[in-house]
Amino acid sequence: MFAQTGGSSVFLFLNQSPSARITAMGGNFISVWDDDPAMGYQNPSLLNPLMNNRLTLNYTDYISDIGRGYAGYVHTFNKLKTTFNAGIQYVDYGSFTATDPVGNITGAFDGAEYALTIGAGREYIDRFSYGANITFITSQLESYQASGGAITLAGAYHDTANGFTATVLFKNVGTQFQTYTNGIREPLPFDVQAGISKRLTHTPFLFSLVLHDLYQWDIRYNNPNEPDQTTILVDSSQQPKNKKYIADKIFLHTIIGTELYIGKTVRINIAYNHQRRQELAVELRRGLAGFSFGAGVRINRFNLSYGRAVYNIAGGVNHISLGVNLDELFGKRM
């Protein structure tokens, strides 16, 4: 039996946001061409020389005592005309109480997952670029262990003069090497995504639209608590029409967000993720579920960012990021 669209694949932490900026933009921000090294984790076609010798360090105060983090570094090799990135993402699920089938405490166990990503991106012709990430995954949950590998392929068009970027990517194409249970191989969280962003001329605003789960039209959760729309042995003129939810099915694929730039040192983000709101909001008190926001500030050689994503009235997640330009930090080009 299937309920929500999630839970049908393993290593779902691969879809988690690597940085506070991306968290503030709804968890998916794949179409901006600038010097943020964390962008290369989600979309390798965005890797470019502006990111050269930049380091990004990130930590997420996740649900309960779960902690997540990402560290990445980008370097451009001019002779190869290629920009490379390397990063590691982890999630620590904390400690759990172990019991026997009748509830007697027998000890404790923990769980953690790690992903090592190596990727490259380069310009193909003027304004067009492409890239690929290779990710090696390992997972240990109590006594169960699994490993796997994934490839993300992407292409982008960037018109920096007009502040426009468009991209498409095929995410997490891969397989398990070692399975949690012998003989049971589970799929990775594959996705097809597309995105566009536009910086409005002579304004401090950039707008972003991300489309996800493009390989599947209907990702709507069928709520069993909704009234049954089918009737039996009644006049057809009195039978209510089944709802088609066309608009909802379209918007479930979208994440919209905006960045507001205040001078050259301050950035403010706000976004809306419709799928998150529809699946996680409490029906009678929806509040700001699905919305996310954050800000970034440049202080000398460092970029400090904060992002918060609201899941429901019970709370959300807080994300902090520190970006470092190593050239400026050490006063020379590395």
CATH architectural name: Beta Barrel
Please give the domain count: 1
Strand content: over 45%
The CATH homologous superfamily is called Outer membrane protein transport protein (OMPP1/FadL/TodX)
Low-confidence parts: 227-239
Determine the number of helices (DSSP H or I, runs of at least 4 residues): 5
| Named CATH topology | Porin
State the share of residues found in helices, binned by percent: under 10%
**SSE string, helix = H, strand = E?**
HHEEEEEEEEEHEEHEEEH
Q: Gyration radius, to the nearest Å? A: 22 Å
Placed side by side, the strands forming the largest sheet appear as 1-2-3-4-5-6-7-8-9-10-11-12-13-14
Largest sheet: 14 strands, antiparallel, barrel
Task: Based on Cα principal axes, name the global outline.
Answer: globular
Distance between the termini: 55 Å
CATH class: Mainly Beta
Q: What is the SS-derived class?
A: mainly beta
Mean pLDDT: 90
Give a quick precis of the structure.
The chain has 334 residues and is mostly beta strands.
Describe the structure.
- With 334 residues, the chain is mainly beta.
- It has one domain (12-221, 240-330): Porin.
- Helix content is 8%, strand content 50%.
- It contains 5 helices and 14 strands.
- It has helices at 20-24, 39-42, 246-251, 274-280, 326-330; strands spanning 54-61, 67-77, 82-99, 105-125, 128-141, 144-159, 164-178, 191-199, 205-211, 254-262, 266-273, 291-299, 302-312, 315-325.
- Strands 1-2-3-4-5-6-7-8-9-10-11-12-13-14 form a 14-stranded antiparallel beta barrel.
- The longest helix has 7 residues, at 274-280.
- It is globular.
- The N and C termini lie far apart (55 Å).
- The relative contact order is 0.18.
